[in-house]
Amino acid sequence: MGRIKLLVFVGIINSMYLKEFDILEVNPERSSQQMRTITCECGILSRCDGSCCLCQGDTTIMASVNGPVEVKSSKECIDQAYIEVTYKPKVGLPGCPEKSLENFISSTCKSVISVNLHPRASFSIVLQEVENDGSLMSCCVNAACMALLNAAVPLNYMMAAVTIIVSEDGELVLDPTEKQQAAAVAYMMFVYSSKDFSLIASSSSGQYSDEQFQRCLLIGAESSKQVFKFYRDTMEKQLISKV
Amino acid sequence: MPEVGSVVLPGDVITDLKGSESSGKTVLGPGLRIDSQNVQDERNEIVVCKPGILRHRDPNVYWVDSHQKRYIPTKGDSIIGIVTIKSGDNFRVDIGSNELASLSYLAFEGATKRNRPDVKIGDLVYARIVVANKDMEPEIVCIDSMGRSSGLGVIREGGFLLHCSLNLVRKILSKECPLLKLLGSTLPYETAIGMNGRIWIKGRSTVETITIINAIEKSEFSSNEQIKAMVRQTMDHLSGF
Amino acid sequence: MHSAGEFCQSSTEPLALNSHRRGITDIIKHFRVSKGWINTRDCTTVPPCVWGDAVCFCREVATREGGILGWEADEARVTVSKPCAHILLLLHCHLSPLYLECHMKARLDGREIYDYRPIQIKFGISQGCCHVTLGNTRILVQVSCEVTAPKQARPSEGILFVNVEISPMAAPQYEPGRLTEEAVELTRLLERCLKESRCVDTESLCIMTGIKVWQIRCDIHILNHDGNLLDCASVAAIAALAHFRRPDVTVSGEEVTIHSLEDRDPIPLSVHHMPLCVTFAFYKQGKFLLVDPSEKEERVMEGKLVIGMNKHREVCTLQMTGSMLLLKDQVLRCSNITVKKVTEMTNLIQKALENDTKARSSGQKFGFASSIEISRLSSNQLEATNMSKESFEEKIQSIVQESSDESYTSDDNCKTEVHILGRGTGVIGEGGPSTWDVDLDEDEEMIAELENEQGQKQNRREIHSEVMKTAGSLGDESEEEQTITLQSEDFSGDRMEISAEPRTTIDLTKALKTEKKQKSLKKSKLKS
């Protein structure tokens, strides 16, 4: 039997596909307190009620929303709508991490969507990973919000997610790339509401101090304002031109 | 405070709405909600719940115009439904909402228990919604309050059913839109327009029907001038052959 | 844009010439007339009975209109100017009932019978990621590789694995996770087209015979279903396979080294040829056919013919399903059409691959994010902007101060001493009163109140049970079911003094009294 010596490779669990990193990949001009370029295109899928393809830097997620639609009788709720989120990774079959992401997003959406307006109905949100270059979870949340706006689903308020990591030298980096995220000491993801920029949901891992956490919360709240401004600009661009 | 005619997003608070002179009340249409979270303050906020353009009609009506594809049943709307199930005394009709609507056998002109209406599964019906709220299944009828059909009923003999967004339907039904009249001046056609985003069209031939369908689809994002130019071009094309 | 047959009505009267003069756009420039068949540009054919009349008429009309440009007897090539071409088409449509029937149907989007919808191919940043749109149908493919043991039957060959994922995003009727028949059929056809045609050289994927080989996994995600998933998926899969790069491997004796990206450049898969599928939809028992059916057209089709072919005219797969009977020459005709379409699509793929390699090597931006057209109304972009730190610098300072004040040092309260009681049992602390910030006096009073209440309830229960026993006809045996309504008297005066928060007291004394009265009344009524 031969021995196989594996050198470093960029991989995701079992399968791997190589990413070609540009020489200018870690943009030296991009400071740590800067969100990457956000690009989005709405209404691209014709078969669903609302859809959006959102890119934060190179991380791209495609989201689609259908609702309110018929619900399976086992999931029927007499006073509110049922929210079903499906996350599809690009490679392989969905497993536990995907399921936990789905649960996270569905519980966040429950507070955002006015579920009491549509009892015994369901909202189905599907998120497809198109490209992952860090801050995947926050990109998913933002794409879902944009798709909900595109579908004109009744919402209580809008949501914006921000990822912040604590790098090895203690620096707080906003909206990290995959490389930066892999080398981080701590990872924090916050979801803010548009009403008063209060925290709706958060997910964090790693070791960090109380002060770092408080700092990240504030930095996150400030950057979420940028995301909300982006939503507003996008909707204005679409709606005002529609005669 | 967002102005009338500007884009509003969910979570935006609206203040300074005009009430009517007589009663002092303001009428809130689709897209606006009262958020009475602060019971102690007794301050009921008016919050936007759908993204769109804030509209106002004198004296006291406010609503949000949003772009939506999914239909939510509203009482009084005339809609086109597809009969899917025949069960007992009711038909179950698909109107595009999350639940099937029920249509009674007797809700047709001249229908009695002996004289059942000739409706098959897959038929199109043009009906009016009489019961629609979030807690009950919607109910539709094909007669008006007098018992006459007044244009409602089964749609027969061919034609084509087009699915479109709710905005398009509202747009082409509005007084300002010249599309339907212009098309009709050169191409005679029959049409039934359902507020649930379904339009039934029947032209003299397949080609004319397709032309009308394409003209309607293209007019969704066009201004009135563009619509007039487009219809003229289409007519030239068609008669040129 | 419109095929000739569209404007032929079912009537048999010839259409008046005059009505066709205005506003004609160019559709066809010339015919090739050979061997008694009139072929249009789109390979449609008309039976010979028409040919004589049509040509004569054409000559007449063309001379009258001044439009005839050429007439070659041998090849019988008739070249006419635009207006006349159209008349000729119309005419022979009209004259031939069979032609009429075949080509009378018009497509909803104005395409001709053999027209494909516009195809767009985009590549992502990671190698092997491809996004193809065919009209409104969108498919995303990602190719990845993994080292596994080879199949026992073929120890020196790599494995190509195809997986199709269809989610509710594609169309609302699909359920997540559940594999529908359609998805299974799609997977099988793609497997036949890609694997069994040996388009990818699997021998080169072997690392160590019988022990380790590369498994190439092709995940196909359907994003939007607007008809003809198979063609779109085959284009996307081939483009992704050609785009993919796998890590370089060196085998030295018993040791195998898989090099990383920095060490050695990844190497592409060896794709011998590009098999692509073309779908034909048939209607009316094989009489009418359409290439690249859209979703509405697919729903009403009766039969389907799929031909997988590469541009060297080699058929890789062929499948016919549905209720129809096809003649041999119909199938041959379809395969001729397939050759043309496959050649076009292959050229498109090659061009897209070239553009991508150029963009990558020249340092330009590539990937999906850069391929979104920002000028469109439905898209928007926000450049990376710096945040204003001043706005929250003060807040941070105040919060940091607060937290440092409140922070408790670990030496303060809990001395974490563990007392070992026995084997496997330990105890931290020894119990005692609660050390949380609670007013102990309040606690005791509240406990006393509760006990009082309990006592009173007991008394009332006893009274009730007596009442109930005497009124035996009521049949209420279970004392546990009795509901006792608390009156304000039960909330005796001392309670008001103790509780700090203003509690709203409910006056239920009267209720209990009236209840008792009613029960006694009923009892008396029964007796009487």
From TrEMBL, chain A:
GO terms for cellular component: cytoplasmic exosome (RNase complex); nuclear exosome (RNase complex); nucleolus. Coiled coil: none annotated. GO terms for biological process: nuclear mRNA surveillance; poly(A)-dependent snoRNA 3'-end processing; rRNA catabolic process; rRNA processing; U4 snRNA 3'-end processing. Residues 34-154, 158-222 form the Exoribonuclease phosphorolytic domain. It is found in: Nucleus. GO terms for molecular function: RNA binding. Keywords: Exosome, Nucleus, rRNA processing. It holds the Pfam family RNase_PH. InterPro entries: ExoRNase_PH_dom1, ExoRNase_PH_dom2, ExoRNase_PH_dom2_sf, PNPase/RNase_PH_dom_sf, Ribosomal_Su5_D2-typ_SF, RNase_PH. It comes from the Eukaryota. Belongs to the RNase PH family. This is Exosome complex component RRP46. The lineage of its organism: Eukaryota, Metazoa, Spiralia, Lophotrochozoa, Annelida.
From TrEMBL, chain B:
Its main location: cytoplasm. GO terms for cellular component: cytoplasmic exosome (RNase complex); nuclear exosome (RNase complex); nucleolus. SUPFAM superfamilies: Eukaryotic type KH-domain (KH-domain type I), Nucleic acid-binding proteins, Ribosomal L27 protein-like. Keywords: Cytoplasm, Exosome, Nucleus, RNA-binding, rRNA processing. It comes from the Eukaryota. It is found in: Cytoplasm; Nucleus, Nucleolus. Gene3D superfamilies: 2.40.50.100, K Homology domain, type 1, Nucleic acid-binding proteins. Signal peptide: none annotated. InterPro entries: Exosome_RNA_bind1/RRP40/RRP4 (IPR026699), KH_dom_type_1 (IPR004088), KH_dom_type_1_sf (IPR036612), NA-bd_OB-fold (IPR012340), RRP40_KH-I (IPR049469), Rrp40_N_euk (IPR041054), Rrp40_S1 (IPR037319). Residues 27-70 form the Exosome complex exonuclease Rrp40 N-terminal domain. One of its GO terms (biological process) is poly(A)-dependent snoRNA 3'-end processing. Residues 159-205 form the K Homology domain. GO terms for molecular function: RNA binding. Belongs to the RRP40 family. PANTHER family: EXOSOME COMPLEX COMPONENT RRP40, PNAS-3 RELATED. This is Exosome complex component RRP40. It comes from Paralvinella palmiformis.
Automatic annotation (TrEMBL), chain C:
CDD domains: RNase_PH_RRP45. It comes from the Eukaryota. The keyword Membrane does not apply. Residues 471-504, 509-528 are annotated as: Disordered. Keywords: Cytoplasm, Exosome, Nucleus, RNA-binding, rRNA processing. Signal peptide: none annotated. GO terms for biological process: exonucleolytic trimming to generate mature 3'-end of 5.8S rRNA from tricistronic rRNA transcript (SSU-rRNA, 5.8S rRNA, LSU-rRNA); nuclear mRNA surveillance; nuclear polyadenylation-dependent rRNA catabolic process; rRNA catabolic process; TRAMP-dependent tRNA surveillance pathway; U1 snRNA 3'-end processing; U4 snRNA 3'-end processing; U5 snRNA 3'-end processing. This is Exosome complex component RRP45. It comes from Paralvinella palmiformis.
